[in-house]
Write a structure and sequence with these properties.
By secondary structure, the protein is mainly beta. It has helices at residues 52-55, 105-109, 161-170, 233-236, 317-320, 369-372, 436-442, and strands at residues 15-17, 22-25, 32-35, 38-41, 49-51, 60-61, 71-74, 93-95, 102-104, 115-116, 126-129, 136-137, 144-145, 149-152, 157-160, 184-185, 194-197, 220-222, 230-231, 260-264, 267-270, 278-281, 305-308, 314-316, 325-326, 335-338, 345-346, 353-354, 358-360, 367-368, 406-407, 416-419, 446-448. The strands form ten sheets. A five-stranded antiparallel sheet has the order 20-21-22-23-24. Strands 6-7-8-9 form a four-stranded antiparallel sheet. The radius of gyration is 30 Å and the shape is elongated. The termini are far apart. This is Zinc finger PHD-type. GO terms for molecular function: zinc ion binding. Keywords: Metal-binding, Repeat, Zinc, Zinc-finger.
């Protein structure tokens, strides 16, 4: 059944009702969060979303804080802060055509009475105060108050205007915010859907996102396919973890993410080279160091490889098995494996130029297969503890994870194996070779002959 658009004063184009929960910023109140109902614009290049109450804002209101004149809804920019909350004024807003009084949409839609006789947030009446010069903490959310506030003159405590209105609306306040958690979601730390449970129960040790302890007596997200996987509710709905889509009531579609089809004994048809089959050759075979894998562009080395017997196309066995689609900690949307054949690209994470395969999503482009293959936790020979992804800049690598574990060197007749600080075995060759470039990047690491 087709959805009918409606014309509303808040926007110049017709708006369509939102059919399901989304996560984003409302273009009315400019609050970033969940929208279970509301409106969106379907015009090309006009990406706006509104909460239901914001989208249905009237064109004219009478506000108790400015009884002299009516206030008109406008999308024009206005200089200065909101005359009630003191925050930066963003369109749309309400303004007086006679004088310079102006309020943002939130303050205009929730008229502030000079006094509230029976507030749900406090035992005594509270009165509205003008902007204070000194900062005081809000009794509900404990955050500093910088604009107008409600105050109990008897107790000498203060409240944000929004916190008072919040308690008036939902009668349940926790840390100054309504509980508004989705029920079924996908996150970028796990391959399966996770489900909200109000009582986690025993058998769970740590959160799959922050890796801190989880409380079995509190609510959390858990996975029906992985018995011991759980995520704190606050961690699961973080903007850098969740894609913002509520999946409750939406059937789960199991996708085929295999990159190849088996067409014979040790023969596959790979998506990147469908014109010819690829044959598997096991490891311990010495390959020419100039021959490189088409996916990771590293030398094929000593690894098992798939190679085409009709043209010079080769893939490491592990690269041939890279999934066509996967979730990565670097973004919230699924990433798709792409065979890049037209140009060289810089990986958006390590910034290394490559003409190999890349992972790409709607929000991210060109993550090379080295970075795209990293999973949490990363267990590395160079460190005794598991490693986790952290968004930090200007940090040096303590040993490049993508270094090849075994190489040939022109000055030695034996293969050199990467060591992580352990004592070398010099029974076969007494010389240790390490280029100045490797010394700079690997610090205490080196390539050593282990015989």
């Amino acid at each position: 059944m087709a959805t009918t658009a409606v014309n509303l004063p808040i926007h110049e184009h017709p708006l369509f009702p939102i059919a399901r929960c989304i996560h984003g910023e409302c273009d009315g109140c400019h609050v970033n969060g969940f929208m279970y109902s509301g409106y969106f614009c379907n015009e090309p290049y006009c990406y706006v979303w509104f909460h239901k109450e914001c989208g249905e804002a009237p064109a004219e209101i009478n506000h108790s804080s400015h009884p002299q004149h009516p206030l008109l809804l406008t999308s024009d920019s206005r200089d200065g802060p909101c005359d009630l909350c003191g925050q930066k004024l963003l369109p749309p807003c309400y303004s007086c055509s006679t004088c310079e009084f102006k309020v943002d949409l939130t303050c205009g839609m929730k008229p502030s009475s000079p006094a509230i006789e029976h507030p749900l947030c406090h035992d005594h009446p509270v009165v509205l105060l003008k902007i204070r010069e000194e900062k005081v903490p809000c009794e509900l959310c404990k955050e500093s108050i910088e604009g107008p506030s409600y105050s109990c003159l008897e107790c000498d405590v203060y409240f944000h205007v929004d916190c008072v209105h919040l308690s008036k609306e939902c009668e349940f306040v926790t840390e100054g915010a309504c509980i508004d958690i989705p029920r079924v979601i996908n996150i970028n730390r796990h391959d399966h859907r996770i489900y909200l449970t109000l009582h986690l129960g025993a058998g769970y040790s740590s959160c799959g996102v922050c890796h801190k302890n989880v409380n079995q007596y509190k609510g959390a997200f858990s996975c029906s396919a992985c018995p011991n996987y759980a995520v704190h509710t606050t961690c699961a709905v973080r903007w850098d973890v969740w894609d913002g889509v509520e999946l409750e009531g939406i059937p789960e579609i199991i996708e085929d993410i295999s990159p190849f089809k088996v067409v014979g004994d040790n023969l596959i048809s790979h998506f990147s080279h469908e014109e010819h089959p690829l044959k598997l050759h096991k490891d311990d075979v010495i390959h020419d160091e100039s021959i490189r894998c088409a996916a990771c562009v590293h030398p094929v080395g000593f690894d098992s490889i798939y190679c085409c017997e009709k043209c010079p196309f080769m893939l490491h066995e592990k690269c041939a098995n890279l999934p066509m689609k996967k979730r990565l900690v670097f973004g919230t949307r699924p990433f798709t494996l792409i065979k890049e054949t037209t140009r060289s690209t810089n990986c958006k994470l390590c910034e290394i130029l490559s003409d190999g395969f890349t992972y790409r999503s709607r929000d991210w482009s060109d993550v090379d297969v080295h970075c795209g293959s990293l999973n949490e936790p990363l267990v590395h020979d160079g460190h005794e503890h598991p490693l986790y992804f952290a968004k930090k800049e200007n940090h040096f690598c303590d040993g490049c994870q993508n270094r090849i574990e075994k190489i040939w060197h022109r000055n030695d007749g034996h293969p050199l194996t990467l060591c992580c600080g352990e004592k070398e075995n010099a029974s076969v060759c007494t010389r240790r070779f390490l280029t100045s470039h490797a010394r700079t990047n690997l610090r205490l690491w080196g390539n050593t002959n282990f015989g």
